[in-house]
Structure prediction request, 457 residues.
Amino acid sequence: MSTHPDTRFADLLVRYWDDALAPAEAEELEQRLAADPAAREWLRVFALQVVAAAELRAARPAPERPAPERPAPERPAPERPAAAAERAPTERHKPSRRRALWSLGGGLAAAVAAVAGGRWLGTGPSDPAPAADRFVRLTAIRGAVVVRGADGAELPTDGAVPTGSTIATNGPGASVVLLYPNGTNVTLTEDSAVTLGPTDDRLRLDRGALAADVQPPLVSGSALTLATSETLITSATKAVVTLTQAVRLTELGVQHGSVSVTAPGGRWLGAVNGGELLTVRSDGECRKQAHPVAPDEYALDLTRPLPAGWAVGRLAARADRPALVPEFWFDPFHQRQMFQIRSDKAWARGFFRLTPDSVVKVRYRVARPGSGQVCLCVRTPDVRSPDTGMLEWNGHYGAGGADDGSWQTLEIRAGAMLENRYAPQFGYPWVSFLLIFNTFETDLGLQVAEFRVTAPN
Prediction:
């Protein structure tokens, strides 16, 4: 089952379906649903997932076994005194909505769910049952999210997403959750894109990163297959996975469960289990390892070739030391050409962890001084969360230093990089998954010879 990021709202939904709401809680839920379209969408999705559970339960034959002895009644969980006083005595013996759905089975359960949600969702008994809805829908939309049909036409984000459509997120903090009728949810992180296959049991990651909580298929349905340019991922039922598609590289992390992986041509690449990370290059090279934990200290090694999947910028040989230099490329967020260095996107493993007292050190030089940035894109320690933010240094490369092209050093506390509009709205530690050096439209002749992060003493 998908859970809402607001634990209070999620608790209210669960208590609603268990008929356990006190009058004050029912009023609170009603106010939230009346004021927030996203909350109403979560109620609709929650109803669909309860229906899916009812369908699976109804379709599963019960094993023959002797009738069990009557168990002792369970002790109810303690509740707030006010809630206990407000609850009507007859409600204790009333079957909950969840229990009613399970006893009715799939078809009638769908109708009950439709009526139950009708007050806020605008549906009624004559509307199609939610169980008949086999389309992917979007929720938890943040920032710029664009949906395009197979013909390239832009589609609304508030309806069913047809097969063959592409969903893309653009810019810092942009994310969206794809919800399947069986309860599977796929979180698409910033600057990422996916394409739905010809049927709703296939999803291709075109770029960026996603996190998927894959549930068993509905009766007569098929399990979800995830695809990238290097891999096909199957048998992911009851698995939590992260998937990253970079240039000529796929990275698959499994947090829970196990998956089977093949190359698009059918070559078996192996099984990946919980706690493992598989890296597959476009040339067929594979590497499986224990899922690493992002370290507190980090140094970019420029004595070796840049990692596969490095996005923008190149390694230039210099007489005194190797250095990264920018490339002029089209930034999709700013919608214009810029001189930038961009690392590969290490969503699953993360480059390093930061606290406000971590120190970021950059050794650089420029041919001419000018404005620029150092940006660290960060996420929460939970790879399934779409929450992201940005730590930024916005300053002047070469300011106050020698103008003879000698190397200069920038040292800054991570906490001092929070003064920007995209700063993380969640607590540290922050896990960095993308590094960016930017000089905008001006070529300053930037060279970066060292990038290092040190933990506080």
